[in-house]
Amino acid sequence: MHSMNSYSSAIQLRSDRWSAFRAAAASLTRKATAAEVEKLRATCQELLDSLALIEPYWAFPGMPAFEHLQRMLNHNNFEDLAFAVNRIARGLTTGAYRRRSIPLERDSIDNEEHDDEAMLSPEARALTKPYFEVLIVDDVSEQQERWLKSNVSRMRRPEDPFHYEAVVVKSIEDALIAVLFNHNIQAIVVRPGLTLKSNMDKQILDRYLARAGGQEEIEKLQPENYGPELCRMIAKVRPELDAYLVTERSVEDIAGMDLGICRRVFYNQEDFMELHLNILRGVQARNKSPFFTALVEYSKQPTGVFHAMPISRGKSITRSHWIQDMGAFYGPNIFLAETSATSGGLDSLLEPHGPIKEAQELASRAFGSKQTFFATNGTSTCNKIVVQALVRPGDIVLVDRDCHKSHHYGMVLAGAQVCYLDSYPLNEYSMYGAVPLREIKHQLLTLKAAGKLDQVRMLLLTNCTFDGLVYNVERVMEECLAIKPDLVFLWDEAWFAFARFNPTYRQRTGMNAANTLRDKLKTAKHAEAYEAQQATLKDADDETLLNTRLIPPPTSRVRVYTTQSTHKTLTSLRQGSMLHVNDQDFKGEVEQSFHEAYMTHTSTSPNYQIIASLDVGRRQVELEGFEFVQRQIEAALSMRRAIADHPLLSKYFKVLTAGDMIPEEYRESGVTSYYDQEQGWTDMWDCWEKDQFVLDASRVTLLVGGTGWDGDTFKTDILMDKYGIQINKTSRNTVLFMTNIGTTRSSVAYLIEVLVEIAKSLDDLLDDASKMERRSFDNRVSNLMENYPPLPDFSRFHDAFRADDVTAEGDIRTAFFLAYDEKNTDYLDLNGTLREAMDAGETVVSASFIIPYPPGFPILVPGQVVSQEILSFMRALDVSEIHGYRPDLGLRVFTDAALKRVRKKNLSSSPE
After folding, report:
1. 355-621, which class in CATH?
2. Does the entry feature the keyword Transit peptide, yes or no (predicted)?
3. Would the pTM of this model clear 0.90, i.e. be above it?
């Protein structure tokens, strides 16, 4: 039986414990020797003891039933025990307990066929009342607990839209553990009698309570503030929940306190019906999906269509003799909901006033933004909207060079002066990491010394990167604001939308960091710290500033934008994305230009099905995102453990750890790996709180060079063609497996089976290989694992596209459009004329974006000088797909005449 440290969350621990208990109890009913029976009894007792630590935090099966199991085991009622444990385990696995009561007695009349959730049709599942649990926090006796639960049960009515059960705990610590353990909890009732301390195992308390502020913060709480403080602390770990405070204190004492997620305060009364109605109303507020509901209602209306879209209402399909297969495949509803109308209860995405506006407001609440906007053509569009709205021609923008190509094209459209930032390289895996904070500060201080800080507009970074590297967002913004107090931040979180719904991950999201920073800047403590640092840093040189953790002035403006590919990590149709805003100057400075940019890039005929899926996807994560993200991370961690622990897999594969992908100087916590075979799982919280960069555990980068196949071959020829496993990203010697909220344990198991089969086939191949075949294999492995081309840094923009040679920014727009005239460009062959020109010392300047896949970002941009390092890297590339490069012609470059003409024009127009 795995220890507690073998699990990253209580969800999987609980599931595995009940499955093991079911197997052990069933074995007790079979004929066995006395010694075997005693051994099985001991196993059952051990499982009961381990479950006793976590079962008090769930409503099903409930502690009375749990204690009943203990009595049956004590009295050797093995048949009854096995039956009851089987019903509980089955109910938990299938979710049957959400729909009906599950009797545990063998003589009860019950149809087990209906236990299985998968056997219900989607229509039948949609008609069942959603189930949740309410946590009641009060130090009560068992009799009082039964009284509380019976009063809650009496309030139920047939017309209630939901069904819920109550869980009662006694202390603040228990309440915090409960909301971190139990994903079914949707509301908390905090009563006056709660206490502070829990009887829970200290190891578990220390591990989980850090997410709510840690034991030190809990110890500081005053008894008279237990209720309000608990509401505030729960808001830190699960802000989507509702809390209701029952208090004996006066209105005056409560007013002005930070009540976190508290929706209503009840003053010393036992009005259970009013509480019941408020609980239902609170959950209903999250369960709303205004645009999806409007679209469903629209599809039911009889209409006559006299506008665009023949497919509207499915008419062009139902009348067809040749495309009936399309109608049969998709079903009627998708066509009944198709329209280009913005009336009939629907709304306009460009000028929303109805259900789309409400849906965006609900999304804003869910993701912690001040404003949220939907996009139906991907995050590439969101990125361009933000850049166009905020960046004026000539503004300097700091951009991580290996960001998504949409940002580079956005710079072209906006006419930005681009200052590219280099990420640290991971040469051995042919991938880049992320941009060190020191590099960002260095560029800002250089621009400040050159008198250009007023031109600096924005910092644009990818969080998290495709490979799973996540910034310390709050720290980056603090230190940058200390140098440039009005700097705008654009965090590309295309792959990170799910992070909002996990307490560990949430702290590193742009919106959460923005809200935290806004609160921090207002405090007297921060102002004192800032003044003290300013006195210390008076007349400090740049090296001192680079080595100091800078504190921003209290007058700093928090201006943060994040873009999210909702469809990549949450439930949404393809191209469904969101743009979140937390900008203190949005209303006064940006709103009009943002509206124009949104109009520029948003279709006048947006897909309503995508909008509806964004609406429903938001509803889902507000109600069950905590559970789904926990399961997603658990699936990835179990994959890591399975590969690391398997002796055959470790011969050919390796899962890259934080120590492999993040240099030691950026890991202040000292954590190198989330999993160790001897010690089990390392709690991620410590490194996610401290380190400059962390690794998203839901992504598993697998080093496959030991197989002799490069990443692209392994992806296409092995995983996809042979086993039907789909992945997105590869590097020269790695493949990336991404879990998501839809990943199942079965999917992980299948992947492990496939990897084992591949490893066995390699073993067999090498056993039968001749000496020359073995040498060939070893050479391929050596080439992939040792003879890797070094990754080039950004060289520089040519002088024709720079204002001066003091700072690094360049005019990418001029270079981009200069190439539109063919007379300004020529082609040089990579292994011929290009190499000869560079060997002769000539300056060669790219006229195009050159984007190899992998790594999937520009290694050259228009106006960039080709360096020897870039040439060597391009010649060493063994990928088949390089956007912007024509193998038949070569690399497109600018002619000397074109560069001289631009340079002369710049000199003549520059001030003396």
Report:
1. alpha beta
2. no
3. yes
344: nearest Cα among 307, 319, 383, 398: 307
The token pair at 517 is: 């920073």
Tokens of 530: 């800032």
Q: What pLDDT does 270 receive?
A: 64
Please give the Cα distance from 882 to 777 (Å, whole number).
27
- 855: cis peptide before it, omega within 30°? yes
pLDDT, tens digit (0-9, with 9 covering 90-100), for 135-193: 999 999 889 989 989 888 888 898 999 999 999 999 999 999 999 999 999 999 998 88
Give the fold, CATH level 3, of 799-908.
Molybdopterin biosynthesis moea protein, domain 2 (3.90.105)
The C-alpha angle with vertex 147 and arms to 146 and 153, in degrees rounded to 5, equals: 85
Per DSSP, the three-state class of 738 is strand
- Collect all residues with Cβ–Cβ distance below 8 Å to 826 and sequence separation of at least 6: 892, 893, 894, 895
77 to each of 65, 107, 535, how far by Cα in Å?
15, 14, 75
CATH class given for the domain over 625-786: alpha beta
Query: Tokens representing 897?
Result: 């005449």
C-alpha dihedral, 192 to 197 to 199 to 203, nearest 10°: 140
Residue pair 28/40 in contact by the 8 Å Cβ criterion:
yes
Q: DSSP string of 144-158?
A: HHHHHHHHHHHT--T
Integer CA distances (angstroms), 518 to 81, 291, 487, 488, in order = 56, 32, 14, 14
Name every residue whose Cβ is closer than 8 Å to that of residue 578 and which is 6 or more positions away in sequence. Answer: 363, 367, 372, 373, 374, 375, 382, 497, 563, 564, 566, 614
**Nearest alpha-carbon partner for 258 in 221, 209, 287:** 221
Judging by DSSP bridges, how do beta strands 131-137 and 185-190 pair with one another? parallel
Helices vs. strands in the chain: H and E counts, helices first: 39, 26
CA distance 424 to 447: 21
Q: What is the pLDDT of residues 486-534, one digit of tens each?
A: 999 999 999 999 999 999 999 999 999 999 999 999 999 999 999 999 9
Which residues 6+ apart lie within 8 Å of 51 measured at CB?
14, 17, 18, 21, 66
- According to DSSP, the β-strands at 559-564 and 881-883 are unpaired
Asked if 774 and 821 touch (Cβ cutoff 8 Å), the reply is: no
* DSSP character at residue 434: -
DSSP state letters, 49-85 = HHHTTTGGG-SSS-HHHHHHHHHHHHTT-HHHHHHHH
If one counts every other C-beta atom within 10 angstroms of the C-beta of residue 596, the result is: 13
For CA atoms 623, 628, 629, 634, the dihedral sign is: positive
CA 45, 48, 49 angle in degrees (round to 5)? 85
Domain boundaries, the chain: 1-107, 129-287, 355-621, 625-786, 799-908
Listed in sequence order, the residues at least 6 apart from 356 whose beta carbon sits closer than 8 Å to its beta carbon are 291, 347, 348, 349, 374, 611
Nearest-angstrom CA–CA distance, 829 and 822? 17
Nearest to 99 by CA among 58, 132, 68, 56: 132
Round to whole Å and give the CA distance between 653 and 205: 36
Cα–Cα–Cα angle for 316, 322, 326, nearest 5°? 65
Nearest to 76 by CA among 50, 44, 108: 44
